[in-house]
Design a protein that fits this description.
This protein is α/β, with parallel strands linked by helices. Helix content is about 40%, strand content about 15%. Bound molecules: zinc ion.
């Protein structure tokens, strides 16, 4: 727009009625938020170390701007890409509302409430939720030190959302884990050290052999593995020569006075289950996303910002999505 026209446009703002003014204000805010999100995505520290998502080359040129995102052209393979190519956020629209949606994730709003809050369709809200959370499953602690409290939680297999169920639907679920038939059990293992670093993993078959695959490099050499007196843990610690503190609480003694206790991991599990009540059951195929969602909030002591969620969601690593072993 030419300078003269801009001056005329600015002068005309004073003559706008209330409805027109609020429409204009809304449009400017929307444009600002798109620009801000694009700025965040183009300039985060991960983006500055980027390489071509097709051939991993670090040799590329700038190649114009499209949809407010800087585009690049790889000198090796000749393909073009932007900061979102190859990430879970690729090809998602309405960037201006992503930060509001990240705020809805922090508040743990339901799909429909988040959709209403951000002015998007409920299907979009569902897609965004799982795209935003897709990467969090990769951000797990690499090492637990000192005392590791270990315990498992049993969920019933859930086909929530599946419209082609091959079995009779359950009406009320199960009141306790012991009521769940063995074939329908999904095990989640939680390991939490006293520094509040938490590792979790899902297992369809809970055995010493299966947990060994994930835990082999997780524990520091001098770790004290605290758990209940269960065959899986006994076998795992014995085979891997790990110090095992077996939970045994004499009567009338305060639990936390002993070094060997699992109160922290039990508290984490309790809070997780409380938090998950709002979703009224989650599909087993998405369970890892909900575990990661809660773990991420716990990692930041429930003070995570929408900007952090957005930047974490666009990590370009690729990983195996098969969570069941
Ligand atoms: Zn390339």
């Amino acid at each position: 727009m030419q300078t003269q026209n801009i001056v005329k446009f600015i002068e005309s703002i004073n003559n706008l009625d209330t409805k027109s003014y609020s429409l204009l204000k809304e449009a400017i805010e929307k444009r600002d938020s798109i620009k801000f999100v694009s700025y965040l995505l183009n300039n985060d520290e991960i983006g500055s170390n980027k390489c071509c998502p097709y051939c991993d080359s670090r040799s590329y040129n700038r190649w114009g701007i499209r949809s407010d995102l800087q585009r690049y052209k790889c000198k090796e393979c000749g393909k073009t890409f932007n900061t979102l190519t190859g990430t879970p956020l690729a090809h998602l629209h309405k960037k201006g509302r992503w930060l509001s949606y990240a705020q809805c994730l922090i508040e743990g709003l339901s799909i429909r409430k988040a959709a209403a809050e951000c002015g998007v369709h409920k299907n979009t809200s569902f897609r965004w939720r799982h795209r935003f959370l897709q990467n969090t499953n990769k951000i797990k602690p690499q090492k637990l030190t000192g005392v590791a409290e270990v315990n498992e939680l049993i969920f019933a297999w859930s086909d929530k959302g599946n419209k082609r169920l091959k079995r009779k639907s359950r009406k009320r679920g199960y009141k306790s884990a012991t009521q769940i038939p063995f074939k329908s059990r999904v095990f989640t293992l939680f390991c939490r050290d006293r520094g509040k670093n938490t590792f979790d993993e899902i297992y369809y078959k809970f055995s010493a052999y299966n947990i060994k695959k994930d835990l082999s490099s997780l524990f520091a050499k001098d770790i004290l593995f605290c758990s209940q007196n269960k065959a899986v843990y006994m076998k795992y610690t014995k085979e891997n020569c790990i110090r095992h503190g077996i939970l045994s609480i004499p009567k009338n003694e305060k639990i936390r006075k002993n070094v060997v206790h699992i109160q922290n991991v039990l508290e984490y599990q309790f809070n997780l289950q409380e938090w998950m009540l709002r979703f009224r059951g989650v599909a087993t195929k998405y369970l890892h996303n909900y575990l990661s969602w809660y773990r991420e909030m716990d990692e930041f002591d429930h003070k995570i910002t929408p900007e952090t969620i957005l930047i974490r969601a666009k990590r370009p690593e690729r990983y195996n999505t098969n969570h069941f072993r």
